[in-house]
Amino acid sequence: MALLWAWCGWGAAVLLGQGAPQLTAISTNRAQPGALITITGLNFLNPPLTAVTFNFTPATVESIRSLGLGYHQISVRVPLGATIGPVFVENAMGQTQTPWNFQLPPVVQRFARNGAFNEADKVRGAPGDSVALTGSNFLDANDPNYRVGVFFDGIRAGLDTVTEGSVSVVVPPGAMTGPITVTNNAGATVTSGYFYLAPWVTAFTPRARVGETLTLSGRSFRAVSSVSFGSVVTTNLTVVSNTVMTVVVPPGAPLAAPLTLESPGGRFISVSNFVLMPRITGFSPSNGAAGTLVTLNGSGLSSVTQVTFGGIPATPVSVTATQVTVKVPFGAGTGPVTVSGSFGSDESQTLYHAPPQLTAINPGLVKVGETLTVSGTNLLGASAVLFGTNRLPAKVLTVVDNRRITAQVPEGASSGWVWVVTPGGEAFGGPISVQGPVPVISGFSPALGAVGTDVRIVGVDLALPAVVRFSGVAASVVSATTNGLLARVPAGAVSGRITVETSSGAAVSAQDFLVGSTADFDVSIASSAEPVVTGAEFRLTLKARNSGPLPATNVTGSLTLPSPAEFLGATLGDGGSFQTGPAGVGFVVGTLPAKSEWTALVRVRIPVEAISRFEWVASTLTPDVDLTDNRAAVSVTAVPLRLELTGFGDDLWVLSWSSLATEVELQESTLDAPRQWRSVNGTPLNDGVRFQWSFSATNSGRLFRLRSR
């Protein structure tokens, strides 16, 4: 806090040197006990100070420092127990004091309601009661601006009388249970104990079940110790704030009764009753047919007038607060049990299971691994679906709802009845017919062969009797093993799928079996133009074909490039790779399946006038029925490009050049140097033999040339 007071020469003039202490400044005129303040003045060291007191309560000087010219400043700790009064500074030559009182926060030593007869009554009351607080620092008679305030849970109380050591107040309207707060100019203090007022409930949850939580709104809940539901007391409560609390409805709570709150401030009894709703905690037995006597256990059951089983109502046989007995009505199905009456209803957490009934099983003809649907009633909670006379259980089942179950036919299931097992009993339906296991082909070897080749077919359930077909042509079965068959490729068979037919079904191979012993492999080569312009790019199309029936394996080839032809690049349409060499370009194609074709586009040019013969040769490791068509060649003539000028009459000139030159353009320039070449305006005509471009003879003084685009 900034310096609040400064003075010089109280009484006599300020003197330097020895003498009684003189005060010139103090850092504040109010503080909490334990606070450190500073006091400035003269004669603090010569002679030294012997005492500093706050209204005669000794304080500790923690440090002293010189300010020059005989002035010193001391740091003093405000002592505990100090009361409102002057600050005294003393040495051997005398003492001096502040001309005003040093103020401290109020101290409350005790409080009590006026007129109380015992200790309990002293700390409780109601709005309008008079309460006396004793302690200190309630009044500073020297300070006309001094104010003291008393608050009950934040509500200011009216003051009756105030002295330095006591204050008498009136409990204000709206006051609630809690500590009393007293404030003055120096601070505030809060009593360690509560002043209690009677609790008051303004609203509460009107209906609930045992174990559920009620919310109460009101005031002075802070010290509530118990809540009674009629005569049943519970301490299972939570005080959220002075205005909100919750309480758990206890076992044994009556059907309807007021709530009673107890606290040191008094008792509150609600005007309206709390109503206990019914609750089902269990029932026995948990299953049975119509007419079965069922006992329901719970709380708040005295008001129950009806019980329903899966939506079918029944009238109770007997009713008490904790138990209801009732007979299962005709038509009752599996489902929760519900009780209802004038005070509410409740539904059981578990199901009552009626005996199951099956109405349909679809499909009636199934195979192992397939899923069927069981339809009926009272199917919830089903634990098993059993198949055939050996009652083999399904390993996968799903209870869709109370009327439907899906189940997967297990391995080893036999034809016959289907049983469903539920907590309500067993039921059967059907019968169904289970087909044998369906054959499966997982592979065969070899992958190809001529007529008469023995082929081993492997898979699942391929046992005899079985019919094996190659592309639909029946084959003879040489032998059978536990997981396959050995069949011979029949005459007339062509490449295609293998099928195996048994009484349980048919299996088809995932790949074709290739019938034959050779591949019909051939090549071709073609040029994109003939003739071509010298230096212009053209393309050679290389093809390799396999007509089958076997795949052509390890296909490689080479393109011979005669001098002066130049290789510019290649594009492979169906994979593979190429590499250039001194004599031409080599290609690696790989395997070429039956009835497939491989293509490459090779870009070349012939820089001078010449006739060049290009040869394309390819081969395969698969035996080939005709090797003569594994070689092909094409000759290409390269002719020079000439730009010719022809005059027609006096005003028309025509420039022409070979139509083979599709990759060039006609440019023009003036005679000025340096030449400024640009494309001519317009598009030259092409008659299939030559390009032609016409211009007027009046446009003289121009040069023309052909340039690659």
Structural write-up:
By secondary structure, this protein is mostly beta strands. It has 8 domains: 5-97, Immunoglobulins (Immunoglobulin-like, Sandwich), CATH 2.60.40; 107-197, Sandwich (Immunoglobulin-like), CATH 2.60.40; 200-276, Immunoglobulins (Immunoglobulin-like), CATH 2.60.40; 279-352, Sandwich (Immunoglobulin-like); 357-435, Immunoglobulin-like, CATH 2.60.40.10; 440-515, Immunoglobulin-like (Sandwich), CATH 2.60.40.10; 519-639, ntegrin, alpha v. Chain A, domain 4 (Immunoglobulin-like), CATH 2.60.40.1530; 644-708. Helices cover 1% and strands 57% of the residues. It has 1 helix and 71 strands. The strands form 16 sheets. It has an 8-stranded mixed β-sheet, with no helix packed on it. Strands 56-64-63-58-61-60 form a 6-stranded mixed β-sheet, with no helix packed on it. It has a 5-stranded antiparallel β-sheet with strand order 1-2-3-7-6, with no helix packed on it. A hairpin with a 2-residue loop joins β6 (60-68) and β7 (71-77). The longest helix has 4 residues, at 119-122. The protein is flat, with a radius of gyration of 57 Å.
